[in-house]
Amino acid sequence: SAMFDSLSRSIEKAQRLIGKSGTLTAENMKEPLKEVRRALLEADVSLPVVRRFIKKVEERALGTKVLEGVTPDVQFIKTVSNELIDLMGGGTGAKDLEPGFPQIILMAGLQGVGKTTAAGKLALYLKKAKKSCLLVATDVYRPAAIDQLVKLGAAIDVPVFEMGTDVSPVEIAKKGVEEARRLGVDAVIIDTAGRLQVDEGMMAELRDVKSAVRPSDTLLVVDAMTGQEAANLVRSFNEAVDISGAILTKMDGDSRGGAALSVREVSGKPIKFVGVGEKMEALEPFYPERMASRILG
Ligand code: GDP
């Protein structure tokens, strides 16, 4: 996908502007930083996030002792790379799912973002890691959503627990976890109702399900195509129900990548996985350093 192409080109251009002689100064970074700033805004990263990012790059670049033999353009790119990694959550690997037995994973998200698909993908991902799973269907408002999960489960050979649409989501979730314990599975993934927009009813229901099953992870599924709006959604869900992380879907599409860059900074919570296609196999752990090197080309 061409997601970060424009950003990559701009960073390359900034590097060329700096050149290979002398040292980094506030003066010779001015235009290059403007270029990076423009590219981040174009990638749909929010203005405050971009401002903080540019300021940090400038401070670090000026404050770091340059190693002998390192040209200023390389020094600049190294600094941008470090700050990109930091922006996306830092660390040396992907953020794992929280431990538990069974691991209880609550999936939340607006309708159409790819939540049910992500539930299936996560089950397959865990299955490949030799963990047995149970999927639980609690979207009592849309029978089609329950059918969809049942079909996904059949396709990847993972059992699906459902009680139709006449029982409350809280009750289904509780019974689902009981069933998971009875079966002795390693993980239970609870799909919840997706709504067209955030409303208090949705949040209250999610809170109720959450306190009933005490999940090890509460993952908000957001659509990368929605850019900085995705990051804002992660923040509001986190404020309302305290999530453990996000799954960013449709990273294979032609989104501008702003969501991947902003979720952590805007919400304080990590992206744990990314969806990269419609197939059940198309789920990957999110590695900030891999994403940063993709951006830098
Ligand atoms: P839900 O309403 O949030 O449960 O959304 P669904 O799981 O039904 O997904 C909505 C649509 O998005 C479906 O057509 C999925 O195939 C598609 N989809 C989900 N994840 C991805 C992804 O990572 N990449 C692409 N290209 N499509 C996806």
How would you describe what is shown here?
This protein has eleven helices and eight strands. It has helices at 5-18, 26-42, 47-63, 72-87, 115-128, 143-156, 169-183, 200-213, 228-241, 258-267, 288-296; strands at 103-108, 133-137, 160-161, 187-191, 217-223, 245-249, 271-275, 283-285. The protein has an eight-stranded mixed beta sheet, with helices on both faces. The radius of gyration is 21 Å and the shape is elongated. The protein binds guanosine-5'-diphosphate (GDP).
List the helices and strands and how they pair.
Layout: H1 5-18, H2 26-42, H3 47-63, H4 72-87, E1 103-108, H5 115-128, E2 133-137, H6 143-156, E3 160-161, H7 169-183, E4 187-191, H8 200-213, E5 217-223, H9 228-241, E6 245-249, H10 258-267, E7 271-275, E8 283-285, H11 288-296
Parallel strand pairs: 1-4, 1-5, 2-3, 2-4, 5-6, 6-7
Antiparallel strand pairs: 7-8
Helix pairs in contact: 1-2, 1-4, 2-3, 3-4, 4-11, 5-6, 7-8, 9-10
The structure holds guanosine-5'-diphosphate.
